[in-house]
Design a protein that fits this description.
By secondary structure, the protein is α/β, with parallel strands linked by helices. Helices cover 34% and strands 19% of the residues. The protein is built from seven helices and seven strands. The chain is globular and about 50 Å long.
Length: 183
């Protein structure tokens, strides 16, 4: 039988905040469109740190750091991951498009691409938009996006919590874009 001792935090050899800021990122920006839950926002920061997301754009009613409720789930990732605030999500999306990003909304929509069928080009820059916990991504933002990605689901519920959806999508992007260069 193989022994599996749980590693101590010191044994994980994680980089510090400055090293994170200087490290190569995966070419992905996360846009949060009117996210109301501070815990969800913090979770997105933490997942973005784990997979070296370039930046998070906080839009509309989405709260911004510093905030104790964001910190509870981010656990400091709000200090490592770059972020900016926009009053309007559409302004953020248009800026990303002007900067050469392919913008994809995570939404169940006509002609969406299943995440399992998504093929990314590591030479491109991408942005994903995640929407409000009840209303999803605004239709005007969907209209401005290059496309929509849908996470396949096989149960009775029609959606996932935003922090869970973000984790699934970021992992998929990381798997295709990192080329293990960030390890």
């Amino acid at each position: 039988m193989i022994k599996r001792r749980k590693l101590k935090v010191e044994e994980l050899n994680r980089i510090d905040i400055q090293e994170f800021k200087e490290a190569k990122k995966i070419g992905l920006t996360v846009v949060l469109d009117n996210i109301r839950s501070l815990n969800n926002i913090g979770s997105v920061f933490r997942t973005s740190d784990a997979f070296r997301v370039d930046e998070i754009l906080l839009c509309g009613i989405t709260a911004k750091p510093p905030h104790i409720e964001i910190h509870k789930t981010a656990l400091g990732a709000e200090d490592s991951v770059a972020w900016r605030y926009f009053e309007e999500t559409l302004t953020a999306v248009n800026e990303l498009k002007a900067d050469g990003y392919t913008v994809l909304s995570i939404e169940q929509a006509e002609n969406s691409t299943s995440l399992s069928n998504l093929h990314l080009d590591a030479a491109k820059k991408y942005a994903i938009v995640l929407g409000h916990e009840v209303h999803g991504v605004q239709q005007s933002v969907i209209d401005a996006s290059h496309g929509c990605i849908e996470i396949p689901q096989y149960g009775t519920k029609h959606s996932l919590n935003i922090s869970v959806a973000t984790g699934i999508v970021i992992w998929s992007f990381y798997s295709q874009l990192s080329g293990n260069e960030t390890e």
